[in-house]
Amino acid sequence: MKAHAILGYSAGAIALGACAAALAPATNHTPAPAAIAVQHRLMPSPRTVAWGYYSAAAVPVLRVKSGDVVEVGTLITYSPSGLEAAGVKPKDIQPELRAITDSVTTHGPGGHMLTGPIYVEGADSGDVLEVRILQIELAIPYAYNGYSGAGGLLPEEFPNLNVKIIPLDKKTMTAHFGPGIDIPLHPFFGSMGVAPPASAGKVSSVPPWTHAGNIDNKELVAGTTLFIPVHAKGALLEIGDGHAGQGNGESDITAMETSLLGRVQLIVRKDLKLTWPRGETPTHWIAMGIDKELVAATKTAVRQAIEFLVTMKGMSKADAYMLVSTACDVNMTQLVDSTLGVHVMIPKKIFSR
Prior knowledge:
Endonuclease I-creI; 2 domains; 10-stranded mixed beta sheet; 22 strands
């Protein structure tokens, strides 16, 4: 989403004697990490958030090794006063959100409050950071959706601010949108990104780019993996913009915005070379394209799908192009973050090997 407000928590670390290979589904191109994983805990606080930006100059708030697992918390992307005005009771607003809103005065140019950055030892420019999304849970029993004339696909038709609080039922994993309308929940982090190239400076958290960031891809739920090209030493991963669910396109500029708790395993991949983020689910590989122009974003996504099929499946470029047309879905990721996102879903079941 394109954020206009708030987020935050605190950090710690504990050792876990767990087999890392059991923490996430394997892929046909992922080497097994170290046998013993270390688990860290990073919760948002005024000292552990990057509010509105990704930057190679950002100071890490946590350092981990490749293969480590991080329990991470993110906060709903809206101010306490805005939530109260929309109908949330003051007691139901997380104190961490109030603390960050009250004490963090330097932020921007975007609006997302991102937890991090996390420095991953051994990661450097030219590598790929594999982010295995092990678990995502709701942290609060409500979400909001809102729009205004400042953004969204149809600001000329919906110029006024309108915010709707949506109750979330963790037991049934549904959102009660309105009378007779219940939406299944599929929580995911709308923004997971690393530092952009140092030459880019402080980049807004709103538009996604080659560093990933605010890609708003609803496929990246628990049990999936995001692969991100690394541009700076340590990668400097930041996570935020929690969504309880979203439709492809995120048409009015927000999804079901909420606070989330998640666990991710971070693996440095020196055997992969990517120019754009890539995803993997239990059933599909995901190629992504991002650009200010829809056609250009779509062409990038299709080219990335072709590249994957050529390099990872050994296909000719011509056959790969034809396979994308005959068996893969080209989907709109999001329409509203100043750059547009498109992704290609490549089904695994069509391959016998």
